[in-house]
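Re: that backbone. Tokens:
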């Protein structure tokens, strides 16, 4: 459930799609990257028949680039990845002269991926990303 007023989401229904899609019951969790107190990237496979994967990453007030392999996916399958990521001008930190506060700046992209691929993403200060992977 989203923790905010519905009218705040009405302007961003494209991004809200991830909240509507995300699973509630998990079969498997994989921790891809982490530095305690700084950032974390995790992947979780839903227990439902579709077996979609969801990846989430979040960072502290430092912007950072992360790269991680998708080798946890089923070999030989291709997946449609919907990526909800920080826009280049995004920042969740108040009073940051290098990146003015702009927490609602995001981009949504789609690409085809497989277990042999890696993804590289930028996380804005106090930002992150979410990815939904659906087998084709």
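Recovered sequence:
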């Amino acid at each position: 459930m989203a923790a905010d007023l519905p009218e705040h989401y009405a302007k961003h229904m494209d991004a809200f799609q991830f909240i509507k899609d995300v699973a509630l019951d998990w079969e498997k969790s994989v921790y891809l990257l982490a530095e305690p107190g700084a950032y974390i990237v995790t992947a979780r496979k839903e227990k439902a028949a579709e077996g979609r994967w969801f990846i989430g990453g979040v960072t502290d007030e430092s912007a950072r680039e992360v790269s991680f392999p998708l080798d946890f996916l089923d070999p030989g399958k291709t997946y449609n990845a919907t990526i909800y990521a920080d826009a280049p001008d995004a920042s969740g930190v108040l009073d940051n002269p290098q990146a003015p506060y702009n927490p609602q700046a995001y981009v949504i992209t789609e690409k085809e991926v497989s277990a042999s691929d890696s993804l590289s993403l930028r996380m804005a200060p106090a930002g992150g990303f979410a990815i939904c992977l659906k087998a084709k």
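The two ends are 28 Å apart (CA to CA). The beta strands are 26-35, 39-46, 53-59, 64-69, 78-86, 106-114, 118-123, 128-135.
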